[in-house]
Design goal:
globular, 5-stranded mixed β-sheet, 1 helix, about 60% strand, mainly beta, 5 strands
């Protein structure tokens, strides 16, 4: 049996970003899901090159590998 790169990648995290209740984007990141601190500033890079900075107000665990990151405007 051949193992492809997706099967080899065991650790990943999916982030769903919301700013003031509005969905911004989702992204998949290789590696373990890091701990994000409430009140921490966070930069989200949108596909058009725009960078949005928000303050983490809450993180919700959607599943073992998926987090919903709720940001407020700074």
């Amino acid at each position: 049996m051949t193992i492809n790169s997706t099967q080899k990648r065991q650790h990943f995290c999916i982030y769903d970003y919301y700013l003031d209740g509005v969905f911004l984007k989702w992204e998949e990141v290789e590696g373990e899901c890091p701990i994000m601190n409430i009140g921490q500033d966070w930069v989200v890079n949108l596909e058009d090159g725009t960078k949005i900075t928000g303050k983490i107000s809450e993180t919700e665990f959607v599943s073992e590998n998926e987090r919903r990151i709720l940001l407020t405007s700074v």
